[in-house]
Design brief:
Layout (H helix, E strand, L loop, with lengths): L4 E11 L2 E12 L5 E13 L2 E14 L2 E11 L2 E10 L4 E5 L2 E5 L9 H4 L7 E4 L4 E4 L1 E4 L2 E5 L5 E7 L2 E8 L4 E6 L2
Antiparallel strand pairs: 1-2, 1-15, 2-3, 3-4, 4-5, 5-6, 6-7, 7-8, 9-10, 11-12, 12-13, 13-14, 14-15
Length: 182
């Protein structure tokens, strides 16, 4: 019986220069070629006199090189704040998330997890799991991908020798940085 190949990347999360958490990302290629990506993050910080304890969990599946399904959950201070499920039905993506249900007719080869493991040079659009939307990406230079999502965040991914080295999530009040540790 063939075994699955698993690749894992770990990142430390920083806010205002202080380490506030960790993010772990894995890619498992199953014997049938199905790819399973998992992102788990945990952070705890005091922002504007408010304690924020945040966890998030993503599971994304690719079949035959195409984004097939994803599930996403974010919990802040013990309360589920955002969640979503997306599934390809053979013709379109069916979305059920915290904002309601919708259909996405555009086929996606790339999602946010693609940025952690894939070749970014030809990426033009990605599926942004947490908001369940297709987003245009920009390439300010050969080693950077950037996009802005409807939740108001500007995300910048920096690569070294084709591997994601660090990323920044710019919000209206702060910038969180994730730096690869292995």
């Amino acid at each position: 019986m063939a075994s699955a190949a698993i690749e894992t990347h770990n990142y430390d999360i920083f806010l205002f220069g202080d380490k506030i958490g960790e993010m772990h990302i894995s890619k498992e290629v199953k014997p049938d070629g199905t790819e399973l990506y998992i992102i788990d993050s945990y952070s705890k910080a005091k922002v504007l006199w408010i304690n924020r304890d945040n966890t998030s969990h993503y599971e994304t599946v690719y079949k035959n090189g195409q984004f097939f399904s994803s599930g996403y959950t974010e919990i802040e201070n013990g309360k589920k704040t955002r969640w979503g499920m997306v599934k390809w039905d053979g013709k379109k993506y069916l979305v059920d998330n915290y904002a309601g249900k919708k259909i996405i007719n555009e086929i996606s080869k790339h999602t946010v997890v693609s940025l952690y493991f894939g070749d970014i040079s030809k990426m033009k659009r990605i599926f942004y799991d947490s908001e369940a939307e297709m987003i245009d990406v920009e390439h300010p230079d050969a080693n950077t991908v950037e996009f802005k999502s409807s939740d108001g965040h500007r995300n910048t991914y920096h690569f070294v020798n084709g591997v994601l080295d660090r990323l920044e999530v710019h919000t209206s009040f702060a910038t969180a940085k994730m730096v690869r540790v292995n």
